[in-house]
């Protein structure tokens, strides 16, 4: 026992000595030798992280769930969220993580008096907060990303949408003024992945976002919106041509820098072949022989052909250049794609006198919104996503790639700007003529997708030519928002146009108007989240989720009778 006591005392003394010897070096040990000292951080290094994450996340919305709401895309596998708006609580932590990095960028650039970097940070702050409030409604704003300052901000209060939109507009005005100085002091080449350090281009981007948000609040703050849009138009400083669009290119070197769902990083090709054109969009494109149709979508691999001489309702097997391929009901995407590129035509025949269903015999076929079983559509012989549906169009080959060309994350565009001004002109605001801006919007979109040479023929079509209606403006703006469908959704929410219809399997007979607050906020910031939820307007479509439902109206559409 004495020996154990002596050993215990010796160990205790040793521990005390070690603690004492280390105490003076504790701060040194806790320093990360690979970390960046905030006091000396280079703001250039922070910019691409914020820009890249914001651009990717925005694209993934406009090419994902929101593309389903805006009826650009339908899925025939994993389809409930896209096609039926079957959304649960949706977390916004990714967007607030961007804001934390962006706040650091702003603080550091302010310390260094780098006007360009301050402007970038304010513009991206406005863009990110805009997405958050557009999607969810009220949200932490004035108390957001301040958790390092005080414990009271660890559970931040939610600000009203009105406060957030006004703050966004104020920040964008400040950013525009900073860019107007053309002072790019401190910028290092290669770190601005949107505009390569050009203050004038950033000012156009900031002012274009101002146009977007003035129009967003035009029903709630009409006087401010009118004055703001007229002032920006008078300045002439906003995005006017596709070359000025706020875009991020996809370099495609790794899966982290490739187009979402690109075949190059999807060996099973399930992500690529799951996406189908929505019939709503396809109908509009086909009706007017829209030149963007062939850029975005591919013809069906196997076209249905009516054949009254057929002895059975439908061919069991496909035909290759008219010859039946005995025993072959389908081919894989890889085989089909290679054969079609050689000019080979595949068909299946059916007898319209014997077949009791409905078949779409067009060269391009989309999926109607909200089907209960979209993988069965158009008599697909391989439901359940065994292989692609050979009787429905896929996305064009461009979307198989992972980089370059037309594949860009587009945050703001010249087409959007022109359509905003067309709508403003139609309201009677002093921004020129609606027809001029409408025509520019159509032309800019065609040029963006490489078919600008067909503008004259396209704009002359009766279904395209400007006809003095808001419906015509919003239809073309909706088409032009391909892969940026969030803007189409928010326009629909504000105007009810285009007049979308929910599909047969939608939980409610109308389209949703917001995302549901996520579990993190509801569970861990309950008091503030509940206060925001209680400010939502319950509708007859809110359903079992009650106020925190995708069919409950946020402030931006309360009292407007829109979109339904």
Q: Keyphrases for this structure?
A:
564 residues; mainly alpha; Serine Threonine Protein Phosphatase 5, Tetratricopeptide repeat; 4-stranded mixed beta sheet; 10 strands; globular; disordered N terminus
Number of helices: 21
Largest sheet: 4 strands, mixed
Q: Share of helix among residues?
A: 40-55%
Strand content: 5-15%
Calculate the mean pLDDT score and round it: 91
What is the 3D shape? globular
Query: Gyration radius, to the nearest Å?
Result: 28 Å
Might you state the CATH topology name of the domain at 43-73 and 92-249? Serine Threonine Protein Phosphatase 5, Tetratricopeptide repeat
**How many β-strands, per DSSP?**
10
Terminal Cα separation, in Å?
Answer: 84 Å
Question: What would CATH call the architecture of the domain at 43-73 and 92-249?
Answer: Alpha Horseshoe
Task: Supply the helix-strand structural class.
Answer: mainly alpha
Side-by-side strand order of the widest sheet: 6-9-7-8
Uncertain segments of ≥5 residues (pLDDT<50)? 1-33
Q: In CATH, what is the class of the domain at 43-73 and 92-249? A: Mainly Alpha
Describe this structure in words.
With 564 residues, the protein is mainly alpha-helical. It has helices spanning 2-23, 26-30, 47-62, 65-69, 80-83, 93-111, 115-136, 161-180, 199-216, 222-235, 270-274, 279-287, 293-296, 333-341, 414-426, 434-448, 455-459, 470-480, 485-495, 519-524, 526-534; strands at residues 73-75, 139-140, 158-159, 246-249, 275-277, 302-306, 319-320, 323-324, 346-350, 408-412. The strands form four sheets. A four-stranded mixed sheet has the order 6-9-7-8, with no helix packed on it. The protein has a two-stranded antiparallel sheet with strand order 1-5. Strands 2-3 form a two-stranded antiparallel sheet. A hairpin with a 2-residue loop joins strand 7 and strand 8 (323-324). The chain starts with a helix and ends in a 30-residue tail after the last helix. The relative contact order is 0.13.
